[in-house]
Specification:
The complex is a heterodimer of chains A (321) and B (423).
Chain A lengths: L2 H6 L23 H28 L2 E2 L2 H4 L5 E2 L3 H7 L2 H34 L2 H16 L2 H11 L6 H10 L12 H28 L4 H9 L4 H29 L3 H9 L3 H4 L2 H11 L3 H30 L1
Antiparallel strand pairs in A: 1-2
Helix pairs in contact in A: 2-15, 4-15, 5-9, 5-11, 6-9, 7-9, 7-12, 9-11, 10-11, 11-15, 14-15
Chain B lengths: L1 H24 L11 E7 L5 H14 L4 E7 L4 H9 L7 E5 L3 H5 L11 H4 L6 H6 L1 E2 L2 E2 L1 E7 L1 E6 H7 L7 H14 L17 H6 L5 E4 L2 E4 L4 H17 L12 H5 L5 E5 L3 H5 L13 E4 L14 E7 L6 H11 L2 H9 L3 E2 L13 H12 L10 H6 L2 H10 L4 H16 L2
Parallel strand pairs in B: 1-2, 1-3
Antiparallel strand pairs in B: 3-12, 4-5, 6-12, 6-13, 7-10, 7-11, 8-9
Helix pairs in contact in B: 2-14, 8-10, 17-18
Classes of the chains: A mainly alpha (321), B alpha+beta (423).
């Protein structure tokens, strides 16, 4: 199975060059080969992403409740769902919270991820392997499982954190709930999200770091540049494009985070005060059975995410050209 | 450009390969009735193992070649899960749901009509309140499964040590709880986690309040009425002064602190008795000889109005084998199966088996009967399941447990409940 994509990943062969015919003007042949190669991907995208997306958009203009889920014909109601969603203060509160959580998690993930990558270049072989394996394990752990385990760590009665705090401070922390206060809930959520996202950033950055030519760094250090100056002036420009991609991906992932928040809410906390946009969409669509309104919120989120990624991709392409 | 094309081609190729893998493994799910597999969703650990074994064995004996698989679900998030799974092509055949959640599914066409087999299931012998919860427009879609009356369990040794007696009024229940917590450090006088809203309802009802009342076509939420507020104040006193349970914890496995002697009083469905006196390995627990029980006392003595928890069970409209599913459902409502439930402390779905309840402990049977006689339900609206699914009642009591302002919280909850019920 792994060999097939490897073969396919070779760039498509250049179109067979027919003998240059000096008499006729050059006519470009229709690029059949790339099209043929594209078709499978396009079909998969259309079936698994395109069609549901179309349905979602249609649904967002319909009154689509639990009866419709089970077969009753839906009724078109124009932009009513959008008006209801955009005038609902709860939607804006949820969106604000999601953005705040996203900013904190992304900043923490990027800083720690890059720091760990730099550290890995300085480590000896044994320690580097140990760090790599630990990162890989964290990356391989499903978000849901990780959240349950973190939930035990922060457990009100039997949690590790409360026990350690009791031992260290001498005060009684047992019974302290880490999830009941929304700010503290989000702090725990941010830790879990960051913990799960760091390995990807660290590995990607580490790979990019190995592309930085040693001779340039050597020349710089001969010119008297210190460690930090070398990183800022030489390493960082080499990493720039990959860091941009990572940043966009992290923003998208963290903005629509679902599993961690949903699982934490089932452990503790006040649901209404800790919903983020992903959980909110699920709650509106599934728990309340209002797929119309849920669809409208989803479309709004898609637009926001497209705007973010569109902006970054444009910036990136400009820089590359 | 060429690189981009190459990358897209790679995605396409790998997608095809992956699709190939997925396709080859997906050849189950035959639609014939012969030799089919019936999937039964039971929720929580409420259904005893004996009953599960009986169901599987009886079904497979009666329908040679077919198998029955029981898949255990969680109460948390059940409405969401049923909404997604009952509408999917991979729907289970038989589903259990909470009686207060049933209207969301009976009213939406998610379940198969049981009108043709209602007589075989028990007919007039079925628990009337649960038939009502499982019917829509006069047609039965979800049959009663069992009911569980709420009973108060207490640690007789701890009551003696703290010098309190079994309370005779609700006020005394509250003051006893606080006294117990004061006399026994590190022990909950009453174990009362914040999300346990079922146990909070009697306080509202006994003080003369309601969750919501129907006024013509409109629902009028009543949590912020003076009567309800008096009840909520009692709940807050218990949660903050008598209970060491997590303020945002839920009631699942509440018997663990009770049987490990970390709480003196514990109100739960009657079948919790078996989890209190024996642990997971069937070994007797520390409280096996010191567990007493009483029905929650009302405002003026007698038994309080408690929440009539329980389950309904229906057949998915999308079930591929409706006839087999019906024969399995008939087993679940047979005298033999329901007797097993009754002997394990559940109130059976068949009224005629009522005297079989928890025959192991006759005193407990009396207490259960006392509590069941005064049981009460949540507002009878198909939208009530949405109030539960959004966790509005849980959020309310978590905030109350955390010492919030009762009037403010109740007013906000009323607004939300009205907007959902009238939505």
């Amino acid at each position: 199975m792994t060999t097939v994509p490897a073969e396919a990943s070779a760039p498509p062969a250049p179109p067979p060059t027919s003998r240059p015919d000096p008499e006729k003007p050059k006519r470009r042949r229709f690029p059949w080969a790339p099209l043929a190669l594209l078709t499978p991907a396009l079909i998969m995208l259309a079936v698994f992403i395109g069609w549901p997306l179309v349905q979602l958009v249609i649904m967002s203009f319909q009154k689509f409740g639990r009866a419709q889920i089970f077969g009753a014909p839906p009724e078109f109601i124009g932009i009513d769902n959008y008006v209801a969603v955009l005038t609902d203060p709860e939607f804006w509160a949820v969106l604000g919270r999601s953005v705040a959580l996203c900013v904190v998690s992304v900043v923490a993930t990027m800083l720690l991820g890059v720091a760990i990558a730099v550290m890995m270049t300085k480590l000896g072989a044994v320690m580097r392997t140990a760090v790599s394996v630990s990162l890989l394990l964290a990356w391989a752990m499903p978000a849901l499982t990780a959240t349950i385990v973190w939930g035990w760590i922060f457990d009100t009665q039997y949690g590790l954190v409360n026990w350690v705090l009791t031992q260290v401070t001498g005060q009684n922390w047992v019974g302290h709930s880490w999830l009941i206060d929304p700010a503290s809930f989000y702090a725990v959520a941010a830790i879990i999200i960051t913990w799960g996202a760091i390995p990807f950033v660290a590995f990607s950055t580490y790979a990019a770091l190995s592309q930085v030519p040693d001779e340039v760094l050597e020349a710089a250090s001969l010119d008297g540049a210190g460690g930090f100056a070398r990183f800022r002036l030489i390493v960082f420009p080499y990493l720039r494009s990959i860091l941009l991609v990572l940043l966009v991906l992290q923003i998208i992932w963290d903005l629509r985070v679902f599993a961690q928040i949903y699982a934490l809410q089932s452990i503790g906390g006040v649901r209404a005060e800790t919903n983020t946009i992903g959980v909110y969409i699920y709650s509106v669509s599934m728990a309340s059975g209002d797929l119309g309104a849920g669809g409208a919120i989803s479309v709004v989120l898609v637009v926001i995410l497209l705007a973010i990624s569109g902006y970054w991709i444009r910036t990136m392409l400009k820089e590359e050209s | 450009m060429k690189k981009t094309l190459g990358a897209v081609a790679l995605i396409g190729a790998s997608a095809l390969v992956l699709a190939g893998c997925a396709g080859s493994s997906d050849n189950g799910g035959s639609s014939s009735e012969e030799g089919a597999e019936i999937r039964v969703w039971l929720v929580g650990t409420d259904t005893p193992q004996d009953a599960r074994d009986y169901l599987k064995k009886t079904f497979e004996d009666e329908n040679p070649g077919s198998t029955l698989v029981i898949e255990e679900q969680q109460w948390t998030g059940l409405v969401d899960k049923l909404t997604t799974s009952l509408s999917s092509n991979d729907s289970p055949d038989i589903v259990e749901m909470g009686n207060t959640q049933a209207p969301a599914f009976t009213s939406s066409g998610a379940l198969l009509s049981l009108a043709d087999i209602e007589g075989d299931l028990g007919g007039d012998d079925l628990l009337p309140g649960f038939v009502e919860a499982g019917s829509w427009d006069g047609t039965l879609y979800a049959a009663p499964y069992y009911s569980g009356a709420r009973v108060v369990f207490y640690n007789t040794a701890m009551y003696e040590q703290a010098g309190v007696a079994v309370p005779t009024t609700l006020d005394e229940y509250v003051s006893n709880g606080v006294a117990l917590a004061g006399a026994l450090p590190g022990v909950s006088g009453v174990y009362f986690p914040g999300k346990d809203w079922y146990n909070a309802l009697p306080f509202i009802w006994e003080n003369g309040g309601e969750i919501a009342v129907q006024d013509g076509d409109e629902w009028d939420a009543q949590l912020s009425s003076d009567e309800s507020l008096a009840g909520l104040a009692q709940v807050q006193e218990l949660m903050t002064k008598a209970s060491l349970a997590p303020k945002d914890g839920d009631e699942t496995e509440g018997w663990v602190p009770f049987r490990t002697e970390q709480s003196a009083t514990y109100s739960a469905p009657s079948w919790a008795y078996w989890s209190i006196v024996a642990d997971e390995d069937k070994q007797p627990t520390a409280v096996a000889d010191t567990t007493g029980y009483y029905a929650l006392p009302g405002m003026d003595g007698g038994a309080a109005q408690v929440f009539a928890g329980g389950s309904n069970v229906g057949i998915a409209a999308k079930s591929k084998n409706p006839d087999l599913a019906k024969s399995a459902l008939e087993i679940m409502l047979s005298d033999e199966y329901q007797t097993i439930l009754a002997e394990n402390g559940l109130v059976p779905a068949l009224v005629s088996l009522g005297d079989k309840v928890a025959a192991a402990t006759p005193e407990l049977a009396t207490v259960i009967a006392e509590a069941a006689a005064n049981a009460k339900l949540t507002p009878a609206s198909p939208n009530w399941a949405d109030v539960e699914a959004q966790g509005i009642m849980q959020d309310l009591f978590v905030n109350i447990a955390n010492g919030g302002d009762i009037k403010e919280l109740a007013t906000a909850a009323d607004e939300q409940i009205e907007s959902i019920l009238n939505g």
